[in-house]
Amino acid sequence: MPSFVDRPAQRYAGFRDTVTAEGLREVAHRISAIVGALAARGVTPAGAPFFRYLVIAPGMTSLTVEACVPVEEPVDLGDEYFTGVVPGGKYAMSTHHGAPDGLYAATAAVLEWGEREGVHWDRAETTDGEHWAGRLEVYRTDPRIEPDATNWETDLYFRLAG
Predict the structure, then answer these.
(1) Is the confidence at residue 68, as pLDDT, over 90?
(2) How many CA atoms lie less than 13 Å away from 118 in the CB half-sphere?
(3) CA 63, 19, 138: angle at the middle one, nearest 5?
(4) What is the reported pLDDT for 79?
(5) What pLDDT shows up at residue 1?
(6) What's residue 71's pLDDT?
(7) Count of CB atoms within 10 A of residue 20's CB?
(8) From residue 102, how far is each of 35, 96, 145, 150, 152 by CA, in Å?
């Protein structure tokens, strides 16, 4: 069962793209590029990297997502990268233990739980899809240290309305 947590606003360096579900892996590869660009500027990440889901089209035909690495201060990485801020607030949080291929089911379980419990998410539903203020997958396990994906931990965060 998810728990409710307060998250402060979080600044990050990111890359945004609109892709199909199959394209998520390509966006995920940008995390290492962002970490490398930060390292080249002498900037240490301020936390675990994460995915931010912004817009999910009806039927998941496309997703607008960001690959993100937390930073303390805005940083200019040039090219396609930017600095953004995830809003602070109250979030529902659940931890997925295992490989990334289980994240879809873990996310569905949180959303179904929220539906049963009457949770109001900070999202707007429009003709082009669900627009989320704060929907994150935080990758707590460094695959360079733990290569066995069955041992990975990913925190799922969903911002509550109001």
Answers:
(1) yes
(2) 0
(3) 60
(4) 83
(5) 84
(6) 98
(7) 11
(8) 25, 8, 20, 10, 11
DSSP letters spanning the chain: --EEEEE--EEEEEEEEEE-GGGHHHHHTHHHHHHHHHHHTT---SS--EEEEEEE-GGGS-EEEEEEEE-SS-----TT-EEEEEPPEEEEEEEEES-GGGHHHHHHHHHHHHHHHT--BSEEEETTEEEESSEEEEE-S-TTT---GGG-EEEEEEEBP-
* The amino acid at 64: T
Token pair for 40: 């080249």
| Furthest-apart CA atoms within the chain: distance in Å | 47
What is the domain extent for residue 85? 3-159
Predicted local distance difference test score (pLDDT) of residue 43: 97
Copy the structure tokens of residue 50: 């994460």
Q: What is the mean pLDDT of residues 26-53?
A: 96
Count the domains in the chain.
1
Here the CATH number for the domain that contains residue 74 is 3.20.80.10
In this prediction, residues 31-39 reach a mean pLDDT of 96
Residue 129 has pLDDT above 90, yes or no: yes
Euclidean distance between CA atoms 54 and 66, whole angstroms: 8
**Mean local confidence (pLDDT), 39-59:** 97
Instruction: Report the mean per-residue pLDDT for the chain.
Output: 96
Confirm if 38 and 44 have CB atoms less than 8 A apart.
Answer: yes
